[in-house]
Design a protein that fits this description.
mainly alpha; single chain; globular; 0% strand
Amino acid sequence: MTLFERVKKMSKERGLSLSQLNDKAGLGKNAIYKWKTQKPSTENIQKVASALGVTVDYLLSGEEQKNETTKKST
């Protein structure tokens, strides 16, 4: 699965369109759609990971590892 496909899938699971995720991450117009053909910057990957509540590693590899900031502390 490509980075774009993984982001699209996760966005859908969270009830967001790619356009909404793009806005939530504070990216330029249609930035995520461009990931189909262009490599995104590290900064933009970090912004999308944060908006989705996952790690950059998860976006890149697909391994189940949630971002520590999304876990509830008890």
